[in-house]
Amino acid sequence: MKCPFCGDENTQVVDTRENEEGDTVRRRRRCPACEKRFTTYERVELQLPQVVKKNGSRTEFQRAKCKASMMLALRKRPVTTESIDSALDHIEEKLAQLGQREVPSERIGELVMRELKKLDNIAYIRFASVYRNFEDVDEFSNVIREVKKPQRPPL
Predict the structure, then answer these.
(1) Does the pLDDT value for residue 11 go beyond 90?
(2) DSSP 12-51
């Protein structure tokens, strides 16, 4: 693996870990030339369906683009990078399991919302407000009610 800092091709693996599901391997590496450390991830490359956008154009699914939109919703929220990567893995798995050659972008948006809801309610509301294009406060209120946990009665 080539060092992203100095370009040296002789890097060493310092630590290797699998995620809980066993489908991703995380490797910590060290470059002996510049002494910097970096992380790489190894995962199975799945044949994912083409994304059909609202205007009818088609494009490849881009994990980085999906991650960027999730990171925007998760900005300043206490969610680990590992959790985000795991959520992205789940989205890719769902897309692969569909067994379709094409999938509408709306379906991907729904998968992202489902994963964000598991990670962080605030991020879910942020993403939903943009994705669903909320026009008034009532739409916000409905989503907040949806994620709000039921209050326990006092003992």
Answers:
(1) yes
(2) EEEEEEE-TTSSEEEEEEE-TTT--EEEEEEEPPP-PPEE
